[in-house]
């Protein structure tokens, strides 16, 4: 693996140079790639092969060495099992060069339940493959990332400081969050009691992080491993429910068209439970609840950021985070209304499996 000094790069010629120095060989072309909101990504072409060059956002990922150690260990473990996974060619400071996974594509917007089933199965396989990853414990790349009580305390701090004098305008949203305060700690409490085990989880289970085969449309591998770290399997499934069952984007302002789609939940449950044989009964019993919890948690995060003056999430207009908050509250309410049906779907899948 190559290690070199890296300086601030501000044009594509320099990015070609850095790719060469990290081990790509002679670079013919470099172009921006993908639509990620965190890291800057480039597709690097050489006479022999193609690579991915990324500049890591160190404002988000402060322990780059720890994160890269996680990624190297996980991808090597997967390859040792005969699974397809990208390889880290070289990295230094905030830059890394990765192998390109050929003959694959990704989907950014789900168009049918079958795609949701495929994605859920892929993430379950990913979790299952890492059950026996040797120690030591992976680094937490973002501390308390899915710690809902911690997120609740962040909201309380935002309300207490109220720097932008916005809290008075979001009383209904605050009331909803506080009404469900006791539910916020359910998964954390079960983990602390030893009833739900700590597992290695992906923590960004969107469909576009599953690479699909160009010819068969089957899942090949899971990518975007920056947030792979210790957590609960329920966080991964819950975020799939939040994103994959949503009838609209998370910043849709027309709440009349925002709801959780039952047929997509059924597809997620079928795909995930077909491979997630490692789950214990407490995890199974809380699969449907996890979808509600992660949606509720995201509403908390959007609301706290709105009250704080939009300092974390990128916004396109003044009330963007408030629109997101109301959207996620509506989604959480929709999941709650269908909770009995969602739990029954899980039970049927377990029985049929």
Q: Could you please describe the fold and organization of this structure?
A:
- The structure is a single chain.
- Helix content is 45%, strand content 12%.
- The protein is of the alpha+beta class.
- It has helices at residues 12-24, 64-80, 113-129, 148-161, 171-179, 186-192, 233-244, 262-273, 281-285, 287-308, 320-337, 339-352; strands spanning 29-32, 40-45, 50-55, 88-92, 95-99, 104-105, 199-201, 210-213, 219-222, 229-231.
- The protein has 12 helices and 10 strands.
- Helix 3 runs antiparallel to helix 7, helix 3 (113-129) packs parallel to helix 8 and helix 10 packs antiparallel against helix 11 (320-337).
Can you write the helix and strand succession as a string? HEEEHEEEHHHHEEEEHHHHHH
SS-based class: alpha+beta
Strand content: 5-15%
Helix content: 40-55%
Strand order of the largest sheet: 1-2-3-5-4
Number of strands: 10
């Amino acid at each position: 693996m190559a290690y070199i000094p890296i300086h601030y790069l501000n044009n594509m010629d320099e990015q070609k140079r850095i790719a060469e120095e990290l081990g790509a060989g002679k670079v013919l072309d470099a172009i921006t790639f993908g639509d990620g909101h965190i890291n800057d990504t480039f597709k690097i072409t050489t006479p022999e092969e193609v690579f991915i060059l990324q500049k890591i956002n160190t404002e988000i990922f402060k322990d780059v060495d720890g994160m890269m150690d996680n990624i190297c260990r996980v991808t090597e473990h997967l390859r040792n099992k005969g699974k397809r996974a990208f390889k880290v060619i070289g990295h230094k400071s905030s830059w890394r060069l990765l192998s390109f996974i050929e003959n694959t594509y990704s989907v950014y917007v789900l168009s049918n339940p079958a795609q949701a089933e495929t994605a859920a199965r892929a993430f379950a396989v990913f979790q299952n493959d890492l059950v026996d990853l040797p120690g030591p414990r992976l680094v937490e790349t973002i501390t308390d990332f899915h710690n809902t009580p911690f997120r609740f305390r962040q909201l309380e701090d935002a309300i207490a400081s109220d720097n932008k004098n916005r809290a008075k305008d979001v009383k209904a949203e605050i009331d909803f969050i506080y009404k469900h305060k006791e539910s916020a700690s359910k998964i954390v409490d079960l983990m602390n009691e030893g009833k739900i085990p700590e597992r290695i989880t992906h923590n960004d289970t969107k469909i576009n992080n599953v690479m699909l085969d160009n010819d068969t449309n089957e899942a090949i591998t899971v990518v975007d491993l920056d947030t792979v770290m210790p957590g609960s399997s329920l966080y991964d499934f819950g975020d799939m429910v939040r994103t994959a069952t949503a009838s609209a984007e998370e910043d849709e302002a027309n709440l009349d068209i925002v709801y959780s789609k039952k047929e997509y939940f059924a597809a997620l449950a079928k795909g995930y439970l077909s491979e997630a044989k490692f789950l214990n009964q407490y995890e199974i019993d809380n699969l449907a609840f996890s979808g509600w919890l992660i949606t509720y948690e995201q509403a908390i995060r959007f609301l706290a950021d709105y009250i704080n003056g939009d300092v974390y999430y990128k916004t396109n207009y003044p009330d963007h985070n408030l629109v997101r908050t109301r959207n996620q509250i509506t989604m959480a309410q929709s999941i709650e209304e269908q909770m009995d049906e969602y739990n029954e779907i899980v039970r049927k899948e377990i029985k049929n499996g």
